[in-house]
Amino acid sequence: MDTTSRQQYLRDRFSFECGCQMCAEGNEGGSDERMMRIQSLQEEIAMFTSGPDSPDAKTAQLDTITRCLDLMKEQGIDRGAYTKAIYHAGHMICSATGDVAGAKEYLQNELVAVRESEGDSSPKALEIESIFRRMLAAEA
Known about the structure:
The protein is mainly α. The chain is built from seven helices and no strands.
């Protein structure tokens, strides 16, 4: 949704005039287009319901995740709640294909994102810590 449409929606639906940085900048620097590309990539990533069926598919899926994370960084939304599902998808793809190092890296990043958005002792953070400990124990 572009800035004008988003602002109109907020006014009509909630009688709210948004003054956040993204709304204030409008499409300066391509913000609206970048947000639409991020949304499209997030939708594509959400469709990665099972592990990739070939090494090429794994590479393509992880490339999609990397592109999404790069765009999120450019947009300034590369932390916490914005990224935790993306990192989780990366972890699941790597786990499904036996890429233990990749799975650990994505899981670590997911844990950071969950802690930032939900807190250190949230049930999800504790669950991820437990998975991470089991991965480390399996390596030993």
